[in-house]
Amino acid sequence: MLIIRKNDKIELFIESVTSEGSGLGRYEGMAVFVRGTVPGDKIIAHIIKVSKNYAIGIVDDIIEPSTSRIEPDCSVSQKCGGCSFRDMTYEEELKYKLSRVQDAVNRIGHIDFKVERIIGADHTNFYRNKAQYPVYIENGSLTAGFYAYKSHRIIPCSDCRLQPPEFEQGIKAFEKWVKKNNITSFDEKTGKGLLRHIYFRKAFGTGEVMACAVVNANDIPDKDYLVLELQQAFENLKSVVININKKNTNVILGSETKTIRGSEKICDVLLGKKFVISPQSFYQVNHGQCEKLYSLAADYAALKGGETVVDMYCGAGTIGLTLADKCKQLVGIEIVPSAIENAKENAQLNHISNTDFICADAFDGAKEIEKRGLKPDLVIVDPPRKGCQKELFDVIENMGANRIVYVSCGSATLARDLAILKEKGYNLQHLTAVDMFPRTPHVECVADIVKE
Fold first, then answer.
1. pTM to 2 decimal places
2. Do residues 67 and 78 touch, judged by C-beta distance below 8 A?
3. What is the pLDDT of residues 360-381, one digit of tens each?
């Protein structure tokens, strides 16, 4: 017999927070998840979904607020799927993120190890250097914002607290172009309509800005007018491009990009090195925290100058190139062709000659290095959230690498991979969390792993 039914209103004490940022309470032993709550809140929850083992609710009333609760500074934070911690003090957010990494290491990795610390951000607002806005156009009026939690319903928001304030002016430039040219928005159901996303990138080290229209066509009308409006919106506009994505998919970017004004790339400065960034390149979204992250990775690498370093999932070469002057040889591996071209260009831009870059997935690239007979002293891995292929660690072990610096955006998959590496004799020496994404549920980690 169900103890909770849909539309029930129950009193609930919020005990903790999930990895997606929802508050967790228990009612007669059943887990109840409620977004927009803070550990320590006592609330009335309105139940909107009931499953066999859990229920989902929304806040009907806050009876007693947690001592960690604060007034949110964003009018759409309860609706948008981006920020989960606008109601919580930053100190409490950091405590939660550190505990989540610790729990993953102990519970998933089955490793008895204390995470050393979490490195907080100097700025919790306006830190993102990239924004991708889904759009909806009706009667010539453009709505740009972000998807509601676990949906494709757009919540209007052009002044997001995570993005640079000037991005709002960029949205207004697109609004004028849309209205003047009767632009339509892409419809996922029919596959018709022109504009899919508006995409901005800003290089915080130089101030350069890229503006991109993601479109369901080979070209756009009235390009000169759009460029003119964007130039008025951005003082340091260096790149205006269109990205062509005609597939009926929820993947944002297509494989082809056309430059309509300026350069296809912008240039940033990170730890004293220059980096060019194209629309498809992976590049950390938080410049200040990225410098802390890479500095920590360099400390863990403990290079003395004579080492061979392999940088897997190297993207535009950012981590490896910041270490290149500390090692004898650097080899980067990346599956995205444009990112590899960026990495080669970045090496030239910084007058770095001890590098080689291979366009392949991590496993195939590692096999190629093994064929070449290279014996890396250090392997850097910075995989996507799903972590590394298990077979990749076999190749790393066969190559004889004694140290791995693992940069992770998913503590659960990091813990899983640490357990695999432990079986191969690689032991965790250091582990630090870095808050790359304040006010969101995500947390980055850097692990120093040594074969003993």
1. 0.91
2. no
3. 998 899 889 988 988 999 999 9
